[in-house]
Amino acid sequence: MSAATHADPKLVKAIEDCLRKPVYFRDIVDATKDYRYRAVLLAWSDIRTRLTLERDEFGRYWMAKA
After folding, report:
1. How does DSSP classify residue 64?
2. Which residues share a beta bridge with 62?
3. How far apart are CA 51 and CA 66, in angstroms?
4. Contacts with 28 (C-beta within 8 Å, 6 or more apart), sequence order
5. Could you give the CA distance from residue 12 to residue 43 in angstroms, rounded to a whole number?
6. Is the dihedral angle over the CA atoms 18, 21, 24, 30 positive or is it negative?
7. Looking at the whole model, is its pTM more than 0.85?
8. Taking a C-beta distance cutoff of 8 angstroms, is the pair 23, 29 a contact?
């Protein structure tokens, strides 16, 4: 069994599109349900290392304005 070590660019883009407005992590998981959970976590990690994410008092994430 081989494990992917790089995030799928299409999945990263899909998650970044979700993060244009406040969203719960569970909504990101739901929006990417056609992907394996491990692939979603790899993409999430890629995004978290490259971008600054904000969180509100409800725990929703979104991309910080540059």
Report:
1. P
2. 54
3. 9
4. 15, 18, 19, 40, 44, 61
5. 5
6. negative
7. yes
8. no
CA distance 44 to 34: 15
Q: What is the pLDDT along the chain (66 residues), one digit of tens a residue?
A: 455 678 999 999 999 999 999 999 999 999 999 999 999 999 999 999 999 999 999 999 999 876
Start-to-end CA distance of the chain, whole Å, equals 40
State whether residue 27 is helix, strand or coil: helix
d(CA 28, CA 5): 20
The tokens of 62 are what? 């979104």
Q: Where are the beta strands (DSSP E) in the chain?
A: 53-55, 61-63
Which pLDDT score is estimated for 1?
45
